[in-house]
Specification:
Helices cover about 55% and strands about 10% of the residues. It is of the alpha/beta class and about 300 residues long. The strands form 2 sheets. Strands 1, 2, 3, 6, 7 and 8 form a 6-stranded parallel beta sheet that branches. A two-stranded parallel ribbon has the order 4-5. The protein binds zinc ion (ZN).
Length: about 300
């Protein structure tokens, strides 16, 4: 091998090495770039995913906040209803005060139905709904005889119905036993009140009754009336008789008689009207009674403890 060819062989080697270096670095560089681009794409993809997740979290957060708000609304609904009812009663109390002091010419009639629930009570409730009138039901523990198929349970469902339809449940004693020992002593009367209170509470999941009507009226209690009233007061009970009626608790011989009894008894600025929801005349005439009251300027409301008509 000549000097020249050795030299060119050396060049060739250097050239080959250079080529190898350039080739390798280009390959590495290419791969490096490729990896960088891949990584960049990955980063973009990931940050987009993160943004999406962030957005989703924010949406869920606002959903949760909305649900929290809903939950607290439903948790407070009992309280809200109680407050609305109390405010409504406060307004009627102010109206009563203005009527009684002569500041207002408006008139109020409190429709009250005694001795139920009865087989007839649904009819009464439906008529009241139709005329959008709220009333008061003085309840007793009905003996099975008076229920739809002589079973207490069928009347007991009505307690929740009274509340659902916006009426006041009041206490007319558990036994209504005027001739069966109710007025034997103060305690026998109070026991019958408490027993009815417990029944109402049980059947309505806690409704509190605080208005009593003496079966037969307060005069039926005779000399026990004063001690009974004192005991009722101690127990935060109010009581009420009535100022008007159609006479359906006694003997009625015709619709006309019931209507004339009713009209003759309606003359005050505030009336508490006694009805019995077992009475066919009353149920039949109820729409006419309501129209008569409306035409004579009476507004109809359910009774409440603070009313001026409730003795305390
Ligand atoms: Zn009665």
């Amino acid at each position: 091998m000549g000097k020249r060819s050795r030299k060119s062989k050396g060049f060739f080697l250097i050239y080959l090495i250079l080529l190898l270096i350039i080739g390798t670095s280009t390959w590495f560089g290419y791969n490096y770039n490729k990896e960088t681009i891949n990584n960049k794409n990955e980063v973009i993809k990931l940050s987009k995913e993160i943004q999406d997740i962030d957005k989703e979290i924010k949406e869920k957060d606002s959903d949760i906040k909305k649900l929290d708000k809903d939950i607290s609304y439903y948790q407070n609904i009992d309280q809200t209803l109680k407050e609305t009812k109390n405010n409504f009663y406060k307004e009627i109390k102010i109206l009563e005060d203005n009527i009684l002091s002569g500041k207002s010419n408006r008139k109020i009639a409190y429709l009250t139905f005694d001795d139920g629930p009865y087989y007839n009570t649904y009819k009464v409730l439906d008529i009241l709904d139709k005329y959008n009138v709220k009333a008061t039901f003085f309840t007793t523990n009905t003996n099975g005889e008076n229920c739809f198929d002589k079973k207490e349970e069928n009347c007991w469902v009505l307690y929740k119905e009274y509340i659902k339809r916006g009426h006041t449940i009041a206490n007319h004693t558990y036994t209504h036993g005027i001739r069966r020992g109710l007025y034997k002593s103060k305690d026998s009367f109070i026991d019958a009140v408490i027993k009815q209170e417990e029944l109402v509470k049980k059947l309505t999941d806690g409704y509190v009754t605080n208005i009593v009507r003496f079966p037969g009226g307060s005069s039926t209690a005779g000399k026990l009336k004063t001690p009974i009233i004192e005991e009722l007061r101690k127990r935060n009970y109010g009581w009420v008789d009535w100022t008007a009626q159609d006479g359906d608790g006694g003997k009625l011989s015709s619709k006309e008689q019931a209507m004339s009894n009713f009209k003759n008894s309606i003359n005050g600025k505030i009336e508490v009207i006694l009805f019995h929801d077992y009475n066919g005349y009353t149920t039949t005439l109820l729409p006419e009674f309501i129209n008569y009251l409306k035409n004579n300027g009476y507004e109809m409301y359910p009774l409440f403890y603070e009313s001026n008509m409730i003795n305390k």
